[in-house]
Amino acid sequence: MPDIASPSAVVIDGPLTRAQVVAVARDGVPVRLSAAAEQRLITARAHVDALADAPMPTYGVSTGFGALAIRHIPPERRAALQRSLIRSHAAGAGPAVQREVVRAQMVLRLRTLASGYTGAQPATVHALAAVLNAGITPEVPEFGSLGCSGDLAPLAAVALALMGEGAVTDAEGHRTEAREALRASGITPVVLADKEGLALTNGTEGMLGMLVLALADLHRLLDVADVTAAMSVEALLGTDRVFAADLQALRPHPGQALAAARMRAALAGSEIVASHRDCHRVQDAYSLRCAPQVHGAARDTVAYAETVADRELAAAIDNPVVLADGRLESNGNFHGAPLAYVLDFLAIPVADLASMAERRTDRMLDVARSQGLPPFLAADPGVDSGHMIAQYTQAALVAELKRIAVPASVDSIPSSAMQEDHVSMGWSSARKLRTAVDGLTTVLAVEYLTAARALEFRAPLRPAPATAAAVALLRTRVDGPGPDRHLAPEIAAAADLIRDGALLHAVAPHVDSDPVPGERRQ
């Protein structure tokens, strides 16, 4: 597998890693083609040129597309055929998807083109790499892909920009015409040749890009959930004994063991936990006691999704595909089912993690269940409402996440005059997972904000070093308990600390020092 050649470049020479995709998509790391990739492009293109000159029609080279594949196209009309394919397939609608999504699908399609299985012209591949490196982002509408044949409309929007047509956003974030952005960056618009319309559009890169980005986000959010859950357990005078390694080993799921280890570490050294070890309470509520089981199941689901993503990152998706012996063969590898299923699957644990976090938050606000905390954590209950409505926001988000957890992949709608009579809807699965990840971030932010406030009401008892570090970080952005304030900016500030990794960085010296023996960190 290729590695990042330097901190400033990703070499395109074979399967990409998830980290490389994220680096290009989010951090703007540039790309370059390897010498081996350049040679593959030349060899594959020679095969396509030979087929284009042959008297026998070849799908995608000298015929129409989809249900129009029976029509033979004469040589003098084939450039128009490729141009028409891109223009007609760039038929999306709705708001533009996020820059990182477009960049992810661009670098993934670049990797597929460089594999030598698509037959694209070297000049076209170089233009795609140049657009990426120039920070030009084609405008890709949210709706239009059925996930079969791949992400046609989103990828066509990118191909349209390579032709110098359509709208883009430049490196400074200004919306402009593609031809103007290309000119300003010294990039010549491409003139597509035989087969290149399919080579640029017939893949799963859109949904795969969103899966890779979601996996990166979920790694962070699962770690955050362990921390916020530990803060809630501590604030609610719960016990850490249920997280003991020997108890977790009785059910040997790796994700569960890791989540429990992190929660143990987060609560180690807590005066609050130590203060009630000999009390008469024998069991905590499920939202406290079973957090490792739920968080761990989510971790194991993410691990499965990673295996699917990694397989797809090693795939070369196109139809027809150029084989090493020069054959051009039709296939069904563009079908997005493998990705659609895991994208749908991930939305389930996201909703469940959020649901459990909301239950812990509600418990801290309910005077009947909060073990002595003031109602709604208000400074002056009755005059102040504390975090009452913050929990409403969590509840609204959790309800939305439950709706989002309904799978899109079971809702196939036939298209292309019944030629494409079963589609994956994987793009839709990916779009709703992105919404779910954002929702989980806010739900955890509310728990973080609430648990920090609750811990401060336990003074003079001191929290654990890890949870104390989490509270101290929050207090750099949000004031401690006091009269009611505008709460929405405080939720947003807590979400920022989660999103940018600051929370995990603050607790890492304490939480990550308790690894699970023999386990690879997921």
TrEMBL record:
It comes from the Bacteria. SUPFAM superfamilies: L-aspartase-like. It is found in: Cytoplasm. Its main location: cytoplasm. It catalyses: L-histidine = trans-urocanate + NH4(+). Its EC number is 4.3.1.3. It holds the Pfam family Lyase_aromatic. PROSITE patterns: PAL_HISTIDASE (PS00488). Belongs to the PAL/histidase family. This is Histidine ammonia-lyase. It comes from Nocardia xishanensis.
